[in-house]
Structures are given as C-alpha cells and as structure tokens.
Design goal:
Elements (H helix, E strand, L loop, with lengths): L4 H8 L12 E7 L4 E10 L2 E10 L2 H14 L4 H5 L3 H7 L8 H21 L11 H7 L3
Antiparallel strand pairs: 1-2, 2-3
Helix pairs in contact: 1-2, 2-5, 4-5
Length: 142
Amino acid sequence: MQYSETVMDHFRNPRNVGEIENPDGVGEVGNAKCGDIMKIFIKVEDNRIKDIKFQTFGCGSAIASSSMASEMIKGKTIEEAWNLTNKAVADALEGLPPVKMHCSVLAEEAIHKAINDYRVKQGLEPWETKNYDDIHDHVHGE
C-alpha cells in the first residue's frame, strides 16, 4: 500500500496528541471491525475551537487522519469545524488508499460527537449527524 509523504509525516509526527483536562466536548468513535478507536477533546472559547487534542488507537491512516483533522479545525468556529468533511481530510493528506478512507470518516464522526457533546453541555440541541455504518462495512468487505 502506497501512502503519501503527508500521511507518513502525520503518522510519524502527529499533531495535537493527548488529552485536555476539563474539555468542553469529547467525541469517541470506534470501529470494532478494524479496531480503530479515536477520541477527540475540544476546548471552546467565543464559539471557536481554541484547543483540540486526540487519542487514537489504530493504524497509521487513523492516526494521520486524526492529526490532520485536528490541525484543520483548530481556531475555527464550531460551524466551520462541523462542516469539515472526511473528503477534505483525505485530500489534505494527499489521498488515502480506498481501503483506508474509513479512517477519515472516523475523524469526521469524532469531531461531530465532540461538538454535539459541547452543544448539549451548553443546553443546545445536538446537530443531526450522518450514519456511516455502511462505509465501515464496505471497507472491510463484509
């Protein structure tokens, strides 16, 4: 499997790894079929993502996707962060092999869960999320 230099860089030197104490929102997603687990922590100030950290247990593509996604939404408004797509993450990584595209989807899902966690804690309605179960199934040939 061929990975871009950008994927390799974010895998070898992931940005924003760790945990935020008393985060404003936490999103955790996992895919039992491939074993990737991603947890994203956000700190929000003035409707902007002031800080973001992640912990990912999984393959290189999952770690690179978490790292790139965290870089792409840091400093952005909640709305801008919500609109980050898995395709934008994959494009920023200069592509992921088709069998690894679900890793960028996990990053999008984890960000959505963290933002909705933040919204609920603020007394707001959670935003509607897409259901991605099918992509995880297709990826692993189930």
